[in-house]
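Fold it.
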Amino acid sequence: MQAHEIDYQIFGEEMQYVEIELDPQEIVIAEAGSFMMMENNIQMETIFGDGSAQSGSGGLFGKLLNAGKRVLTGESLFMTAFLNQGNTKSKVSFASPYPGKILPIDLTQFQGKFICQKSSFLCAAKGVSVGIEFSQKLGRGLFGGEGFIMQKIEGDGMAFVHSGGTMAKKELAHGEVLKVDTGCIIGFTKDVDYDIEFIGGIKNSIFGGEGLFYATLRGPGTVYIQSLPFSRLADRIIASAPRSGGNSRDEGSLLGGLGNLLDGDNRF
């Protein structure tokens, strides 16, 4: 096994965090900003790229190339490594950036590769490679919500990704098709065929409110779906943000308060 063999436990329901237990000299890598807490024996160090063996191939140029690819997925050039430098087991924890679920991925069960949406990676055992997956189909690159680029996680260790809202797992048989909102995909195994399909119909396109395209996922393979993409959550927050007067719509207004009592808060 190339990656470090870490133990973990996930806590919480809607705002989860994962607690990683490290043996002496074991390392876990994480995205910047996901750190929550750690015990005294853990040493934190900023590293270039993901610190995996793949990132170091090709000397300095190879490191620059692999780390630079991460910028295309919206991630930082640097990651953070947490090393247990003590003589006993120690724990370090990482938290989700928004309400949802943390998905543990044992890459040995997915033939060493898992493809997921950009910015979903949370942390992984040292030795797991975090890179990019280019879309080879023009349609899903232009209209797929995730663009031409998705993240790929490779190796033989444990990795953790986060999702928004409630998570659904679907096992697709060979040739079985699942149609999904383009923003609701968390990730899928490498054998799943992913494409974009036009919804069709003038009424659906103009008045449907669901966008013009949805994703089609064709088996065989495993697919993970999220009920609340962060972009959808952000749109709702922006819609209810205070306007120029400093207050949100109807806030502090007697008539506005009565209106909400009569027909509910329908600002969305």
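The radius of gyration is 21 Å.
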